[in-house]
Specification:
This protein has 41 helices and 25 strands. It is α/β, with parallel strands linked by helices and 974 residues long. The strands form four sheets. It has a 13-stranded mixed β-sheet, with no helix packed on it. Strands 4-3-9-5-8-7-6 form a seven-stranded mixed β-sheet. Strand 24, helix 41 and strand 25 form a beta-alpha-beta unit. Helix 33 packs parallel to helix 34 and helix 35 packs parallel to helix 36.
């Protein structure tokens, strides 16, 4: 605006009502106007005189700014009354300020606008207006000083500064190494879910996480982010916090409070704290706020507050769940009560809240606003992550080649934590030793964490590697020399696991034999925000899975306890608990007490401990462990574990709920089945794997919705490859990805049913399937619904249809198939004499694809069920399909839902109906038919005796028009 003569007085006049409605923080404006002599003290008193009148009226009003709402006891009604009075007073004061400034002339008017421009946090609602008027301060304005005396914006700035400092670095190995977040962070796949846990596609960025898209419960308080251990939930929040601190996050929130749910474990049952102290003591305190204006602002405008709560599954549940809920911000309560009241919306309702928890942690739907599940790295993300860790192309190529040679390792690397361990270990050990390559054989999770421990221990007292001479690698020597600190860390982890606490004091570290030097190895990190008393620092192990690994190591190393003690966590995991929805129970479920104290409703950390125990006691690691434990004791523990596993597997398999169906004897496995497979794989025992395979008596295994990820497919294959008979496998609605399909490749030769719907598969997975299924030709059912298959993959599926003579059912809807892929599939279906059910819902084959399917349908001898719904088919394609179907006497169910059929298609569809070919179900829901087209169909229906229904719901008819067709119940509008 500078360079042209602008009247700021006219701007204030023209936009007066907007300024009156949005301008707040009156005191800051008055302070600056007074400091620059645009107004005198008497004029300031005039503006504030209305507040004085409020005092005289006996209402608690604070000069210049906010009410003492916290003095109003617990009455919501009184708060609302005072809030309304306050709003009226503020509007009056703003009008007086505008009148006063306009009387002072152009310079004062511009200075007022300049204050709004400079103190942007205090006047955040007016920043769009400043852009709208294209405001740029003049040289006269910039020569004047502006002081931010607004405690609200000053506190917001302090929060941003401290959060930036806390989140710009990520601690790497040990406390002596830090990496900039921006140099390491890589996006993961953020899968957006609806209220039925159905995928709506991936989020593009973190701004979309906070947006209104896909909100299925506007009354909910929580954006729920879930994912497996190690998938990147914490670092995602880390990134979110960092973006907010730099003002790069699209949100109106001016306050951001972050909490780790684990920190609530440090409080005693008798501890009481106020909401104010919970917010400020564990984030940062406002400066120069004697009148408590910041907290009052938070109470008044909760929508300006953003919370993150990390790791709700780690929150200890105890008798506090039966305590009364907290509805007033003024009273003191136990921190866990305050936390749950915040999450339920009893406190600060309307604030934004992002909550993370592990997959499977059930939260009541009524409090969830939006739901996202993290799926880990895609192949593209993995490639990006590799390029971040290795700057030289030669190193990138070397790692990529080694990863590609081991699909299971690639599958593990889809989990960010495991990928971080692999890449950092490779880089570190490659630097330290003459040669180090990733294992060519199948690597287990135990191998991975042994590798991490080797890296940590090799840093202890190791000199900097020479550029000319590196040391040879000797794993056993590294572990033997580092056994003392490793055993101490393991003892600490086991003690924490036994009492379900993952935060440790300095005294506990000392009691386990850890020294100051040991703390620099990297196993532990400080947890400053967990220090409630302001006393000595507390610590935690680097990750919960590392915690489980070290606890398992302690069980193996312990030569004092009875050998059978290694099974203690197996017993704990096998104990049945009363199923319930864990979070927020005391908010909604009354005060009935649970039958047992359950510090953690989910026991995944114990399951990981059992898994690592199986790995450490496996024969593959006997050579290493015999250097650390008495060989005699090691063999005794291994024999005990193998005996227990064998007995447990037999018991588990005999207790599976088998039932007979049209697809043979079917079983939907229980959650522990997957952990059983993982443990068997870690043992590497072919005997147990063969026994398990033979013990599965079902012809069809359902593993749908079991949270199977790509790395689990190797464990599944490790068992199934020993099965002597053919088998059907349903793995719908999991997260196996392309890596998982590669790991299952050896087992496809035995599979009659392959259901991999909703698994984020690309064309490369279909290439693997085509190669195996076309060789063995035993597949009967192929389910690929809702993946990422393009026309390239559709061509491969067409190959499977043509070359597999037993294939009866193909479900390939909701992919990315166009008319090109539609033609491939239609031509293959036309040649198949076995296929009878095809699902194509939700692709984009259009009229060209419909024409190809019309040719396939003409005189087809077998096809009875076909869905071409949601494929962009117009009346042109509908006409071709109808004409072809008049020559088909086999098709019974035909769906054309959600297409673009108009009345132009009605005569051709009516001819099909009148032909009485044997079609029994015709679905035309959600098209563009009007009452005229429906009349044509209704008339033809009178001449048809085979059709059971024509569904025409959600076409272009009014309720009155629909009532005209009430006589024939086969014409359905509802």
């Amino acid at each position: 605006m500078e360079g042209t003569k602008v009247s700021y007085l006219k701007i204030l006049t023209y936009h007066r009502e907007l300024l009156v409605s949005r301008l707040r923080s009156i005191q800051c404006i008055l302070d600056n106007l007074l400091a620059c002599s645009f107004v005198c003290e008497e004029e300031v008193e005039i503006v504030l005189r209305s507040a004085t009148r409020m005092d005289q009226a006996g209402l608690p009003f604070k000069k210049g700014h906010w009410f003492h709402l916290h003095l109003l006891k617990k009455s919501t009604c009184v708060r609302e009354i005072i809030t309304n009075i306050y709003a009226h007073v503020i509007l009056s004061q703003v009008r007086k300020i505008l009148e006063l400034v306009q009387c002072k002339g152009e310079e004062a008017c511009e200075y007022l606008i300049y204050v709004l421009y400079k103190v942007c946090d205090a006047y955040i609602d007016l920043q769009p207006w400043l852009k709208e008027i294209d405001y740029a301060p003049s040289s006269d304005a910039t020569a004047l000083s502006v002081a931010n005396t607004d405690p609200i914006s000053r506190y917001s700035e302090k929060l941003r500064h401290e959060m930036s400092r806390d989140t710009c670095f990520i601690m790497s190995y040990g406390q002596r190494e830090e990496t900039r977040l921006e140099d390491l962070y890589t996006d993961t796949q953020m899968d957006l879910l609806n209220d039925c846990n159905e995928s709506l596609g991936f989020l593009g960025n973190l701004d979309q996480l906070l947006g209104d898209h896909a909100v299925f419960n506007p009354q909910g308080e929580i954006i729920y982010v879930m994912g497996d251990a190690g998938v990147g939930k914490s670092i995602l929040l880390h990134r979110l916090q960092n973006l907010w601190s730099k003002r790069d996050l699209q949100t109106d929130a001016i306050f951001f409070f972050k909490f780790r749910c684990r920190m609530f474990s440090i409080f005693k049952d008798t501890d009481q704290i106020s909401l104010r102290d919970l917010l400020f003591k564990y984030n940062c305190f406002p400066d120069h706020d004697p009148d408590n204006e910041v907290f009052d602002y938070i109470l008044r405008f909760p929508e300006k507050v953003l919370f993150t709560f990390d790791g709700y599954d780690e929150l200890q549940m105890n008798d506090l769940m039966n305590a009364p809920e907290v509805v007033s911000p003024d009273i003191k309560a136990h921190p866990v009560q305050l936390l749950d009241s915040l999450l339920c919306g009893k406190l600060l309702r309307g604030s934004q809240k992002v909550l993370t928890a592990r997959t499977g942690t059930e939260i009541q739907s009524k409090v969830i606003r939006k739901k996202v599940v993290l799926r880990g790295f895609s192949p593209a993300h993995l490639k990006t992550y590799i390029s971040i860790h290795f700057k030289e192309q030669a190193h990138r190529d070397q790692v990529s080649v080694q990863l590609d040679a081991c699909p299971y390792l690639c599958g593990l690397c889809s989990t960010p934590l495991f990928c971080w361990i692999v890449l950092k270990s490779f880089r570190h050990l490659h630097t330290m030793h003459d040669s180090f390559d990733l294992p060519e054989t199948c690597i287990t999770l135990t191998d991975l964490f042994l590798l991490l421990c080797e890296v940590y221990l090799s840093r202890s007292g190791s000199p900097e590697p020479s550029l000319l001479k590196k040391s040879p690698r000797c794993v056993s020597e590294t572990f033997v020399s580092g056994l003392r600190p490793l055993a101490a860390f393991a003892k600490l982890a086991l003690q924490g696991m036994e009492r379900s606490s993952f935060v440790y004091s300095q005294e506990e570290l000392t009691e386990c034999g850890l020294t100051e030097e040991d703390l620099t190895l990297g196993f532990l990190r400080p947890v400053s925000e967990c220090d409630a008393s302001g006393g000595a620092a507390t610590f935690e192990l680097l990750h919960i899975i590392l915690h489980s690994f070290l606890a398992a190591f302690a069980l193996v190393l312990d030569e004092q306890a009875a050998a059978g003690s290694i099974l203690k966590f197996f017993t704990e995991c096998s104990r049945k608990r009363e199923p319930r929805c864990l979070p927020f129970d005391f908010c909604f479920c009354g005060s009935s007490k649970s039958n047992e104290k359950a510090p953690f409703e989910k026991n995944e950390h114990l399951q990981f401990t059992n898994l690592f125990l199986c790995g450490l006691l496996s024969k593959a690691h006997a050579g290493l462990m015999e250097h650390l434990v008495s060989p005699v004791l090691l063999r005794k523990k291994r024999a005990l574990l193998k005996s227990y596993l064998s007995t447990s597997v037999k018991s588990h398999l005999s207790g599976l709920p088998y039932h007979n169906s049209g697809e043979g004897r079917k079983v939907h496995v229980l959650p522990n089945f997957l952990w059983m497979l993982r443990c068997i794989f870690e043992t590497g025992s072919r005997d147990i794997a063969q026994m398990t395979a033979k013990g599965i008596e079902a012809d069809f295994i359902k593993l749908g919705y079991c949270n199977v990820f790509s790395g689990d497919c190797t464990a599944l294959n490790f068992v199934l490859q020993h099965r002597p008979r053919l088998l059907g496998l349903d793995m719908d609605n999991n997260n196996i990805g392309d890596y998982g399909v590669k790991q299952l490749q050896p087992s496809f030769c035995k599979m009659t049913i392959v259901r991999l719907c909703v698994n984020h598969l690309s064309d490369s997975s279909i290439e693997v399937l085509a190669e195996e299924l076309c060789i063995h030709k035993v597949v009967e059912v192929l389910g690929l619904y809702n993946n990422c298959i393009t026309d390239v993959g559709a061509k491969l599926v067409a190959q499977i249809i043509e070359q597999c003579p037993k294939l009866r059912v193909v479900k390939i809807g909701k992919n990315k198939i166009t008319s090109v892929g539609g033609r491939y599939l239609a031509n293959a279906i036309q040649r198949s004499a076995s296929i009878f059910d095809v699902g194509m819902w939700g692709n984009s084959i259009g009229d060209e694809g419909a024409q190809a399917f019309a040719e396939a349908l003409r005189n087809h001898p077998r096809l009875t069920n076909l869905s071409l719904s949601a494929n962009g088919i117009t009346s042109k394609g509908g006409r071709c399909l109808a004409e072809a179907l008049k020559e088909n006497t086999v098709l019974r169910i035909f769906w054309l839902v959600q297409n673009e059929l108009t009345d132009d298609a009605a005569p051709h569809l009516a001819d099909l109906v009148q032909a009485n070919t044997g079609l029994s179900h015709l679905w035309l829901i959600n098209n563009q038919l009007t009452v005229a087209g429906i009349k044509i169909l209704a008339a033809a229906l009178n001449l048809n005796t085979a059709l059971k229904e024509i569904c025409v719901k959600a076409n272009q008819l009014s309720e009155e028009e629909e009532e005209q067709f009430g006589e024939d119940k086969r014409l359905r509008f509802h």
